[in-house]
Amino acid sequence: MGPAAESMVIGQGPAGRGYPVFGGGRPGVPARRGVVACRVGVDRVRLLTGSARAGRRTTSPGAADFRGRRRKLRHDGGVQTPQQVQTIGRELIAALVEKARSAPRGRVHHNFHASPEENPNRFLNVMTAGAYIAPHRHREPPKAEALVVLEGEVALFTFDGQGAVEAVHRIGPAAGVWGVDVAPGAWHTLAVMSAHAVCYEVKPGPYDAATDKEFAPWAPREGDPAAPEYLRLLVERATRTGSE
Predict the structure, then answer these.
(1) What is the pLDDT of residue 8?
(2) CA–CA distance, 230 with 227 (Å, rounded to integer)
(3) CA distance 23 to 110
(4) Are 97 and 150 contacting, i.e. CB atoms less than 8 angstroms apart?
(5) Distance CA 113, CA 127 (A)
(6) Got the DSSP string for 69-120?
(7) How is the chain split into domains, by residue range?
(8) Reported pTM
(9) Residue 99 in contact with residue 196, Cβ under 8 Å?
(10) Which of 11-25, 94-108, 163-177, 227-241 shows the lowest per-residue confidence on average (mean pLDDT)?
């Protein structure tokens, strides 16, 4: 593989730990002053403090602004949780797989961001075997790209500037590697190694189709008659060598 900064692999590790919210909140029970809400944004973390003594509450100067935002919080079992949550479950995935199977390109997106201008962009990329994604990079503007495979298996290829394969990563639950983080400017593509694959992807916004991708001049574009054979050779290499 090329420079270590080009891609980071998300694989097995120690069990994850949660992030508790400390402080009071049970009716009638005095509580010490503590953290009662935490909002994590793309560019900031804001902690709000307060007192949960009966009938009285004091907040930090930023609390009024926090309460006024569109995303309101509800109290549920002593934990502050967002009211608007989008879930990723069996029914959604099954419906998207069916759509991908009948789609002309063999793949579909399901966006979780409300508009292309939102930052970051978050979406499901559901692909079937034979779907072709032309090698590309995100350089101008520079954008990193994170991908986690929820179902199935894909191979991620990175290339040098002349189109030679630098590395292959088999990604999916069965491969023991669940995701990758690709650095801005790295030439890359995906190939589906199972009947279908469901990927959760995150990229910086806003999205502009005119500037989002720079396609490689040394590889066929989507729709080119040479694309199926090029994809077949990539799949063959990943099948033969696995991750390299």
Answers:
(1) 58
(2) 5
(3) 37
(4) no
(5) 20
(6) SSS-EEEETTEEEES------HHHHHHHHHHHHHSTTSEEEEE-SSSTTSSS
(7) 4-14+87-241, 34-77
(8) 0.68
(9) no
(10) 11-25
Encode pLDDT of 34-45 as tens digits: 333 333 333 333
Which has the closest alpha carbon to 37: 26, 23, 57?
Answer: 23
- Look up the CATH number of domain 4-14+87-241: 2.60.120.10
The pLDDT tens digits of the residues spanning 79-99 come to 444 448 999 999 999 999 999
Structure confidence by residue, pLDDT tens digits, 169-180: 999 999 999 999
Closest CA to 231 of 158, 97, 163, 133: 133
CA distances from 24 to 32, 45, 50, 101 (A): 7, 21, 9, 50
Asked whether residue 196 carries a pLDDT value surpassing 60, the answer given is yes
Longest dimension (CA), the chain: 72
